[in-house]
Amino acid sequence: MDTTTAGLAEELRISVARLSRRLRTLRPARPEDARPPLTLTQFAALAALARHGSMTPRELADHEKVQPPSMTRVIAFLEDQGLLERTPHPTDGRQAVLVPTDAGHTLLAEERRRKEQWLARRLNELSDEERDILHRAAPVLDKLSRA
User: Fold this and answer.
1) Residue 99's CB: how many other CB atoms inside 10 A?
2) SS3 55
3) What residue ranges in 21-145 does DSSP mark as E strands?
């Protein structure tokens, strides 16, 4: 095991990427309907609106680091699926503000529930000591993610 900072960086990068990839595979097709599944970009945009509050299409594109034309397609799909809606901008009548619908919030909650259940099952397979290490590491990982 490489105990250098560079070695730790490599181990963390690989482990976090594997865990992230595994959690992404748990994405639902769509609950209780035959509508197409959300892409990662569509899901991330909906989640960003739910987490950070309403945004204009341009703000959402900037937040998600995608070009406005790409975000326009994402917004159109989510709107067509009934997962978000446009509301009038409070100060600029030329713009709209995007907000998740109840169906959008429900889809996000189901996604979180499924992933957390899967992760809880995996955590139960670990020893008490391993879970304690992860419990203590969680704030540190969060700090790294915000850097």
Assistant:
1) 16
2) strand
3) 84-88, 96-100
